[in-house]
Amino acid sequence: MKRLISALIVIIFTLSCSACFVNALAQDQIYTEIYEDGSYDIITTTSHFTISNLLNTKGTSSKTKTNEHHNADGSIAWKASITATFSYNGTTASCTDVTKSTVIYNSAWKCTAASCSKSGATATGNFTFKRYVLLVPVQTINKTLTLTCDKNGNIT
Prior knowledge:
Blueprint: H1 2-25, E1 29-34, E2 40-48, H2 51-55, E3 59-70, E4 76-88, E5 93-104, E6 109-119, E7 122-133, E8 136-148
Antiparallel strand pairs: 1-2, 2-3, 3-4, 4-5, 6-7, 7-8
C-alpha cells in the first residue's frame, strides 16, 4: 500500500513539473519595430506545445507569429498573422501546413495583398497594407513573417 501511495505521489509530481515546464516554454516572444512617423509594430510569436513535444525527438509542433501595427497615437490599425505546423524527427524538419489571416481595425487601412507559402522547414507570410486619405494611398507597409523549424522541433 505504501508503494502504491509513493508511486502516485511520484506520478503527480512528475505531471505537475511537466505542466510547469510546458507553461514556461509556451511564453510569447515579443519585440517592437518603430517607424519614423511614431507608428510601431508589435510582433508576437506564440508556441503551441504538447507534452509529446517534450518527451520525444520526433513529432509535430506549431507556432503563430502575429504583427500588430499601431498608429502613432497607440491605436491599433491592423493585424497580420501566420500559423505554421512542422514535423521533425531529430534528423530533418519540414513545414506541413501554413495559414494566414488579417484583421483591419482602422478603416483608413486596407490589406491589398496577402499570401503564405512553405518551403522545406520554413513558413512565410507576405502582406501589403496601404493607408488611404480621400481614396489616395499615402502610406504602404510591406510585411514578411517567417517561422523556421530545426530538426529537434525548435521553431524561430
